[in-house]
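Hi everyone, sorry if this is the wrong subforum. Our group has a chain we'd like a structural model of before ordering constructs, and none of us has done structure prediction before. Sequence below.
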Amino acid sequence: MQTITALFYVFSAVLLFASFRVITARSPVYAALYLVLAFFSAACVWMLLRAEFLAISLVLVYVGAVMVLFLFVVMMLDINVDTMREGFWKHFPVALLVGAVIALEMGLVLMPGFDVRSVPATDAASLKLGNTKMLGIELYTHYLYPLQIAAVLLLVAIIAAIALTLRRRKDSKYIDPSDQVNVKKADRVRLIKMPPTIELPAVSQATGDKA
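Answer:
Right subforum, don't worry. Here is the predicted structure as tokens:
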């Protein structure tokens, strides 16, 4: 067995173990950390497949940004997972069966793409371009329309998130910055002359004469 093949099996085993622990860990923090381990293992597998750009992008984007943000959110919210995990092991066999069926369907769809006999020979000019440039050429030539559709879907998702955030809610309190800037001193403080509420005690005549 070659070294690359042995490393592939090692990283694949770690990836499968981390993926299983993501859905079975009792703490959401541990689940997020196992997901980080799964991303690192997938990046190592891509490095073995000479897809350096995809591996570095996975580490920088998902591990360095998305998962760190998700981990901070999980730690700040302090969600009670016990109530959410009720009935997990009861429905686990059904979920395992559905997951196996989905994995089998994905394998049937993706297996023709792994047929190395139908891959055209790579010329020397393509090898000089590099992995990143070849990926860009493939994206913006053969897969231009799927890339544009994905970009439109992401734009719609961003607009929907902004629209959901900006909706007016009755139970939320917010301050309009324009009202704060345009406020005047007379609108904030008003001096009112009020008579005393407690009357002073009357001074006796003898005290007044003595004074």
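For your construct planning: Residues 123-167 form one domain. The chain has a mean pLDDT of 79.
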